[in-house]
Amino acid sequence: MEQMKVLVVGLGLIGGSMCKAMRRFTNHLVYGYDTDGAVLEQAVRDGAILEAVPKSGFHEFDLIMVCLHPRAAKAFFDAHIPDFRPGAMLTDVCGIKGALVEHVTELAAEYGQRYVGMHPMAGKERFGYPFSEGSLFLGANCIITPIPQTSKAAVCILEQLVHDLGFAHIVETTPEGHDAMIAYTSQLAHVVSSAYVKSPTLEQENGYSGGSFQDMTRTATLNEEMWASLFLENRKPLLFELNTLIENLQAYRDAIDRDDYTTLVELLRDGRIRKEQNLLSHAKDRRE
């Protein structure tokens, strides 16, 4: 892949990991921009970026990757797209695509730039630059969200970059399709985990917990400002999933309350079968 001069905006967990991964696995020249000067200094010391870039230097880059929360990302694009050179490629890693993709696509086209939305499906229970690492994306999934106006050449460049960073599987879908699926596969899990740890029993769990507890509570140590923004930006799909979950939980609750062994077995059997079918489907996809 031809060497690019890349600017990563926002050096949190994902942005910092993107910098480190590009430095580790590609020959691209990686620079950083962040409002936190201490983070930029640490990233330079770590070798994650070659140097920090002032706003006056934005026009120098082939690729600008914005790693901010959805509202902050939109505000950044609105403020700085005129500062990027014609022909530059733009992308973001926001967990919600929705109206952002269409908005930035149209805005970038006004200035002769190409935009492609993406969402790396990788993360940790901790956030911020100190927890970033170049191996974060190895074996992970990445979602690309082109629309009819999106440059096919830009999609190919981004997919090659994603492949070089170690992602195992790339999915192309619409922004709307992305948001509907993410409400189920990611956002719902974070809501449930956050609610689950609010039981008063949490204070006595030490010594009683195992893998199930760890799996259920891992994502409760989230970045509340980022996830609140994501939830509200994706309100309709997330409410659908929450209402579905509440309805299903009520069925389990009712069966337990009635001491209804037969119904409870049926509910549990149905859940087991659905998950087994899901695992078989994944195994088939890997073979193909």
From TrEMBL:
InterPro entries hit by this protein: 6-PGluconate_DH-like_C_sf, NAD(P)-bd_dom_sf, PDH_C, PDH_N, Preph/Arog_dehydrog, Prephen_DH
SUPFAM superfamilies according to UniProt: 6-phosphogluconate dehydrogenase C-terminal domain-like, NAD(P)-binding Rossmann-fold domains
Residues in Prephenate/arogenate dehydrogenase domain copies: 4-286
Keywords carried by this UniProt record: Oxidoreductase
Source species, domain of life: Bacteria
Pfam families the record matches: PDH_C (PF20463), PDH_N (PF02153)
Any one Gene Ontology BP term: tyrosine biosynthetic process
GO molecular function, one term: prephenate dehydrogenase (NADP+) activity
Pathway annotation: Amino-acid biosynthesis
EC number(s) on file: 1.3.1.12
Membership in a protein family: Belongs to the prephenate/arogenate dehydrogenase family.
PANTHER family the record matches: PREPHENATE DEHYDROGENASE (PTHR21363), PREPHENATE DEHYDROGENASE [NADP(+)] (PTHR21363:SF0)
Protein name as annotated: Prephenate dehydrogenase
Species: Ruminococcus champanellensis (strain DSM 18848 / JCM 17042 / KCTC 15320 / 18P13)
